[in-house]
UniProtKB/TrEMBL annotation:
<feature type="domain" description="HTH gntR-type">
    <location>
        <begin position="21"/>
        <end position="89"/>
    </location>
</feature>
<keyword id="KW-0804">Transcription</keyword>
<dbReference type="InterPro" id="IPR000524">
    <property type="entry name" value="Tscrpt_reg_HTH_GntR"/>
</dbReference>
<dbReference type="InterPro" id="IPR015421">
    <property type="entry name" value="PyrdxlP-dep_Trfase_major"/>
</dbReference>
<dbReference type="GO" id="GO:0008483">
    <property type="term" value="F:transaminase activity"/>
</dbReference>
<comment type="similarity">
    <text>In the C-terminal section; belongs to the class-I pyridoxal-phosphate-dependent aminotransferase family.</text>
</comment>
<dbReference type="InterPro" id="IPR051446">
    <property type="entry name" value="HTH_trans_reg/aminotransferase"/>
</dbReference>
<feature type="region of interest" description="Disordered">
    <location>
        <begin position="74"/>
        <end position="105"/>
    </location>
</feature>
<keyword id="KW-0663">Pyridoxal phosphate</keyword>
<protein>
    <submittedName>
        <fullName>GntR family transcriptional regulator/MocR family aminotransferase</fullName>
    </submittedName>
</protein>
<dbReference type="Pfam" id="PF00392">
    <property type="entry name" value="GntR"/>
</dbReference>
<keyword id="KW-0032">Aminotransferase</keyword>
<keyword id="KW-0805">Transcription regulation</keyword>
<dbReference type="InterPro" id="IPR036388">
    <property type="entry name" value="WH-like_DNA-bd_sf"/>
</dbReference>
<dbReference type="GO" id="GO:0030170">
    <property type="term" value="F:pyridoxal phosphate binding"/>
</dbReference>
<keyword id="KW-0238">DNA-binding</keyword>
<dbReference type="InterPro" id="IPR036390">
    <property type="entry name" value="WH_DNA-bd_sf"/>
</dbReference>
Length: 477
């Protein structure tokens, strides 16, 4: 291949340096330079590897390898079905940026793999079914009638959620007991407001736990009070030592440790709530994803009188929908309705009705079956990849793998988990240190979400972690 540039069929101007190693290396540097100089702008679609390979007279392997390398550097993004694009950046490079002078290295490297727990694979959003439901809603009387939406939510959705909870979560409720919210955070904020107005000063929270909900409760006037979590879930004895009259917990799948509250603890927790006339706020955030263990029913299904049940579609569909539900015990129903009525508006009625139609026609169940399978494969790939490294294996078993979209990787004692997370971020891998979710000191561990990690990248991600751990152990030795 004698040419040093290509600008023919693909219209792509890539200068291949004369020297600089193999064709793969020269092509990689050529594309890298084109991006740096702004000739390939953020968002630009690169030619399919077959077309570029034909033009350069090389194998597709060379082009694929170059694309993969540049994706690992965060310069390109590859998406199934929509090709390879130059990574979007906040601003178009200015003429100054294009000047040949060396640019300072960015302080925050681009994220190549976002393994933070929390989000599902939003690329798996069931767009065709959702769109069909949306179109149907726009032609119905429900939509026409909803110019003055009810604060409790669209009736159609309340019916659908009540049926879903009874079928899937063992929670038998009347339609009008379901209140529609903008998600779990909104639900916690409403409950915290109501409890604070009743003179409840604090909210016991699992430590570690999802800090966002602690902040939301604090903003509504409840001081979070940490309670330890062990292999059986929330430590109810430790809860008894506090003077809390309300507790926030995730009994089916503690976040982020992944434990399920044991049957003994479930009974003990309900007994505590009855004795103290306390409220249990149940965060049932990812009940739909169970792999190797029997589904754990909702705690509210055992005793509705003391539990506020919270659910949302943030883990199953898209956190950006801001759609969820709340089922209060009878004595909190009216205060919570009032809080909904006097607070900021709830989720879009169009989204509520669209979700209701989507679920009612079986689309939601089909979607859950499909993604559950994909997530299980991702989990398997990541667990296998992590266990293939002695340095990771030696820290003990990876935890919280039976359910959900994330797992917990114990790290060598003596290392600081936030430092490991920072080093990984330096390699473009976003994770969260367990200490980031903890109020009190915890053994070092990383929380890794696999919802968006394709099985083919799992080995690479595990390798990066193993390398970072080795470097850090050598550095601190
Ligand atoms: C522990 C936990 N609870 C609840 C949620 C869902 O919150 P929301 O419905 O406000 O998006 C998440 C999402 O990340 C979570 O991690």
């Amino acid at each position: 291949m004698g040419n040093d540039r290509t600008n023919r069929a693909t219209g792509l101007l890539i200068e291949l340096p004369e020297d600089g190693g193999s064709l793969y290396e020269r092509l990689t540097s050529g594309i890298r330079a084109a991006i740096a100089e702004g000739r390939l702008a953020p968002g630009h679609l690169l030619p399919p590897s077959r077309a570029l390979a034909a033009e350069l007279g090389c194998s597709r392997w060379v082009v694929n390898e170059a694309y993969t390398q540049l994706a690992a550097e965060g310069r390109l993004q590859t998406r199934q079905g929509s090709g390879t694009r130059v990574t979007a950046q906040p601003a178009t490079p200015s003429p100054v940026d294009r000047a040949p002078a060396p640019r300072p290295a960015p302080t925050v490297p681009p994220v190549v793999a976002d393994l933070r727990p929390g989000a599902p694979d939003v690329a798996a959003f069931p767009a065709p079914g959702w769109t069909r439901s949306l179109q149907h809603v726009l032609a119905t009387a429900d939509w026409e009638r909803s110019v003055f939406p009810s604060a409790a939510g669209a009736w159609r959705l309340r019916e659908v959620v009540a049926a879903y909870l009874s079928r899937v979560r063992g929670l038998s409720v009347e339609n009008d007991e379901v209140l529609i919210t903008c998600g779990t955070s909104h639900g916690v904020s409403l409950v915290a407001r109501v409890l604070a107005a009743r003179g409840v000063p604090n909210l016991a929270v699992e430590d570690p736990g999802w800090s966002r909900l602690h902040q939301v409760a604090a903003a509504a006037g409840l001081v979070p009070e940490p309670v330890a979590v062990d292999a059986e879930g929330l430590d109810v004895e430790a809860l008894r030592q506090t003077d809390a009259r309300a507790v926030l917990c995730a009994p089916a799948h503690q976040f982020p440790t992944g434990t399920a509250l044991s049957p003994t603890r479930r009974r003990a927790l309900l007994a505590w709530a009855t004795e103290r006339s306390a409220v249990i706020v149940e965060d049932d955030y990812d009940a739909e994803f169970r792999y190797d263990r029997r589904p754990v029913g909702a705690l509210a299904g055992l005793d509705r009188s003391r539990v506020v049940y919270l659910g949302s579609v943030s883990k199953t569909l898209h956190p950006g929908l801001r759609l969820g539900w709340l089922v209060p015990p009878p004595d909190l129903r009216q205060p919570l309705l009032d809080a909904l009525d006097t607070g900021a508006a709830g989720p879009s009625t169009l989204d509520q009705l669209t979700f209701a139609g989507f679920a009612d026609t079986g689309g939601y169940d089909r979607h859950l079956r499909r993604v559950r399978k994909a997530y299980r494969a991702r989990r398997d790939a990541l667990v296998t990849a992590l266990n293939s490294h002695a340095i990771i294996r030696d820290c003990g078993p990876v935890l919280g793998i039976a359910a959900g979209l994330h797992l917990l990787v114990p790290l060598p004692r003596g290392l600081r988990d936030h430092v490991i997370a920072e080093h990984l971020a330096g390699r473009g891998i976003a994770t969260v240190a367990l200490s980031g979710y903890a109020i009190r000191r915890q053994p070092p561990a990383l929380v890794i979400g696999y919802g968006r990690l394709s099985p083919s990248r799992a080995q690479w991600a595990a390798e990066q972690l193993a390398e970072v751990l080795l470097d850090e152990l050598n550095r601190t030795a």
